[in-house]
Amino acid sequence: DAVSQRFRDCWQYLGISNDDFIRTTEPRHEKVVAEVFRRLQAQGDIYMGKYEGWYSLADETFFLDSEVENGRAKESGAVVERVTEDNYYFKLSAYTDRLMEHIESHPEFLQPDTRRNEVLAFIKGGLRDVVISRRNTGWGIPVPGDDSQVVYVWFDAVINYLTATGWPGNAAWDQVWPADVHLVGKEIYVRFHALLWPAMLMGLGLELPHTVLGHGWWLVGG
């Protein structure tokens, strides 16, 4: 509550107006997450499997052996732990060709070019299916039909862009979708906003944002 209020105050201080301010703990969001999960599961894009590997609580991200060194994620330096769980997976690998084709035919989609090249290199390295649930420890949005699991925070978080439009119940939702620009931080760009989110939208048969712009970190006072 305190942190979200700081963001609201920040936008007011900077003179930035917003039509909506959404938090992923809101009931409207839980309903949309459940609907997205059910639709993708019904068409075979979501399946149950066993995950054994590294997980960073600080990053809330799963990592391969090759992405970990001396007990820390190479990408962020965060401590990782070895976990073994039965989880739900999203078939990201099935969207490899469609993602590559869209990125290459729409150079404005991923900007700046340095981020775009980073994403293309990531795809060429081989996309793997993504774990999209965790064991239910009392926090998170329950998986529809399986209360033993909650939806993985990054699968849930990006769906808030759809929730804010009123999809699918609002007949006028497509008047504000697709987004002209998603403005996101560089650390959540490649895995989540440039790969997972577009693939999810493709699976739902929805248009992709025109541009996903990855910004660096703003430094104040050095």
Average pLDDT score: 93
Strand content: 15-25%
Q: What is the share of helical residues?
A: 25-40%
Low-confidence stretches: none
Q: What is the spatial order of strands in the main beta sheet?
A: 2-1-5-7
Task: Assign the structural class, choosing from mainly alpha, mainly beta, alpha/beta, alpha+beta, or little secondary structure.
Answer: alpha+beta
How many strands in all? 12
User: How do the helices and strands follow one another from N- to C-terminus?
Assistant: HHEEEEEHEHEEEEHHEHE
Number of helices: 7
Taken from the alpha-carbon principal axes, the silhouette is globular
Report the C-alpha radius of gyration, rounded. 18 Å
Features:
single chain, 222 residues, alpha+beta, four-stranded antiparallel sheet
Commentary on this structure:
- With 222 residues, the protein is α+β, with helices and mostly antiparallel strands.
- Helices cover 35% and strands 24% of the residues.
- It has helices at residues 2-14, 27-42, 96-105, 113-124, 153-158, 160-163, 189-204, and strands at residues 46-56, 61-63, 68-69, 72-73, 81-90, 110-111, 130-131, 133-135, 142-143, 146-151, 181-185, 211-215.
- The strands form 4 sheets. It has a 4-stranded antiparallel beta sheet.
- Helix 4 (113-124) packs across helix 7.
- The longest helix has 16 residues, at 27-42.
- The chain is globular and about 45 Å long.
- The model has no long low-confidence stretch (mean pLDDT 93).
Summarize the topology.
Layout: H1 2-14, H2 27-42, E1 46-56, E2 61-63, E3 68-69, E4 72-73, E5 81-90, H3 96-105, E6 110-111, H4 113-124, E7 130-131, E8 133-135, E9 142-143, E10 146-151, H5 153-158, H6 160-163, E11 181-185, H7 189-204, E12 211-215
Parallel strand pairs: 6-12, 11-12
Antiparallel strand pairs: 1-2, 1-5, 3-4, 5-7, 8-10, 9-10
